[in-house]
Amino acid sequence: MALADAAGGAVDVAIMNVNLARGSNGVETAGLLRQRWDIPSLFVSGNLDEGIRSRAMQYRPVGFIGKPYSEREILMAIRALAN
Question: What's the mean pLDDT in 33-39?
C-alpha cells in the first residue's frame, strides 16, 4: 500500500502473495489496491484453494499462479494484461 501511495497509484499490476508478512492478507490488500487506485493483482501462492480464488475474484485479478513459479509464468500473465 505504501509503494502504491508513494507512486500516486501509478502502478500497472501488483504481484501479491496470498499470505503476507506480519499476518497481512494478500487478498484484502489486493482489494484495497483495486478500490483505491484500480490496480489489478496477480496472485502467487502455494495455497490457492477454491475459497481463496473465490474471495479474490471479486477484485478482478489478472490471474493466479501457484508456487513454485517461473519468471516465464509471471511475464506471460503480465503480457496478457497489456493485451
Answer: 95
